[in-house]
Amino acid sequence: MSPQQPVTPQLILISPILPGQVEAWRRFIQEIVNGRGDAHAASRHEMQIWQERIWIHETAGGAMIMFVIEAEMPEDVLRGLATSKRPFDQWFRQQILALLGHDLTVSSHKLLPDLLFGWQSG
Predict the structure, then answer these.
(1) Residue 1: which pLDDT band, with cuts at 50, 70 and 90?
(2) Measuring CA to CA, how many Å separate 80 from each of 20, 43, 46, 86, 122?
(3) How far apart, in whole angstroms, are the C-alpha atoms of residue 88 and residue 46?
(4) Cα–Cα dist 71/100, whole Å
(5) Domains in the chain, please, with CATH?
């Protein structure tokens, strides 16, 4: 068995998309990619984010998103997203509230997961 490699610090949000908001969620992501790319990149650079990935998974119970941010200090990223005055970040917070129901400014949910199991090929 080989030694476990260190886990990259991550901020993770797994959440249902509010009912009727799946297409709005897809448009939100399209807007980031196609219309607000420079503002998004500037925001993430300033918060020292290395990588950001967002998945959508449609299940029988409804659509879910998985949002993963890799950064040196994930706790600081959450604080930055919650308090930033940058127009992009304010817009981003409004979209997360409207589409997922999460108010990042008063977040009480845990976004740093507890790793229960890990395996990798040696």
Answers:
(1) very low
(2) 29, 9, 9, 10, 37
(3) 12
(4) 23
(5) 10-104 (3.30.70)
Select the more confidently predicted residue: 122 or 22.
22
Cα angle, residue 56 at apex, residues 50 and 61 outer, rounded to 5°: 145
Q: What is the pLDDT of residues 66-122, one digit of tens each?
A: 989 999 888 788 888 889 999 999 999 999 999 999 898 886 556 566 777 877 777
pLDDT score for 77:
87
Q: What token pair was written down for 20?
A: 């009727």
Give buried/exposed letters for 12-30 (b at 16+ CB in 10 A, else e).
ebebebbeebbeebeebee
Residue 74 contacts residue 11 (beta carbons within 8 Å):
yes
SS3 23: helix
Rounded to whole angstroms, the Cα distance separating 61 from 84 reads: 34
Q: What count of Cα atoms within 13 Å lies in the side-chain half-sphere of residue 22?
A: 12
Q: Any bridge partners for residue 64, and if so which?
A: 16, 57
Look up residue 56 and give its two tokens: 């959508």
Question: 56 - beta bridge partners?
Answer: 65
